[in-house]
Amino acid sequence: MIEIYHKPITRSIRVVWLCNELGLSYRLVFVDEGADKADLDAFDRDSVLRKVPTVSIDGLVMTESGAIVQQLLEAHEDSLVNRKPGTAERAAFLQWIHGAETLSFATSLVAQHAHLRPENKRVPAMAAEGRQLAFQYFSALEKELFHRAYIVGERFSAADIMVGYTLYIAHLMELFDAQSFPKLTQYFVRITGRDAFKITIEQCVPEDVRSFRPL
Q1: Where in this chain does the record put each GST N-terminal domain (predicted)?
Q2: For the chain, how many structural domains are there in total?
């Protein structure tokens, strides 16, 4: 049994997306305002730091999205979204799975200091630093995608899920566009056109913020 504790627009989207790609059954447990008390009590029990994602996999509790993704892939190693140990793409696969947090850090700076925090607690310099870091990451992705369809070769993988979630957040904040990053934009359209992604967004993101701006 897989239970995924979730709040909207958080990294738990990565885990839900992977489960949908793998065709796994799971229970999505919302722990934001208005959540069921029993679910909140279970969340308090399983997540000492009260962070999402918190995932229980047959009683095994994990809280880091990259580690959760890797754990699920090891249990389904023959999945098409995995790259097995010993394969030529394995090192790059792991690099992008865990390196996706670099972009998440950048987008978090922008989100906190340009959108989420009260005006008197925002630091414009931090938002600017986040945008600069994100631009550097987008530039690296643009080069990687110049001769390939996906992050690791010509087939979709869990690395695209890890990176794709953060690109979705960046897209909502209008941090990249087709004129500046044409290959990245084509890639983003490609991965977000997948059925599993569309289902995930319908499940995980409030309707008033899930709509895409034109690309």
Answers
A1: 1-80
A2: 2
The reply to whether 103 and 173 lie within a common domain is yes
Query: Measured between alpha carbons, how far is residue 55 from residues 13, 73, 126, 150, 169 in Å?
Result: 12, 14, 31, 27, 21
**Of the candidates 141, 117, 140, the residue with the CA atom closest to the CA atom of residue 127:** 117
Burial class (CB in 10 A: 0-12, 13-18, 19+), 98: middle
Nearest to 196 by CA among 18, 27, 24: 18
The pTM of the full predicted model, rounded to 2 decimals, is 0.93
**CATH code of the domain in which 143 resides:** 1.20.1050.10
Q: Are residues 59 and 139 in the same domain?
A: no
What range does the domain containing 178 cover? 90-194
Residue 199 falls inside a structural domain: no
Read off the pLDDT of residues 61-119 as tens digits, 9 standing for 90 and up.
999 999 999 999 999 999 999 999 999 999 999 999 999 999 999 999 999 999 999 99
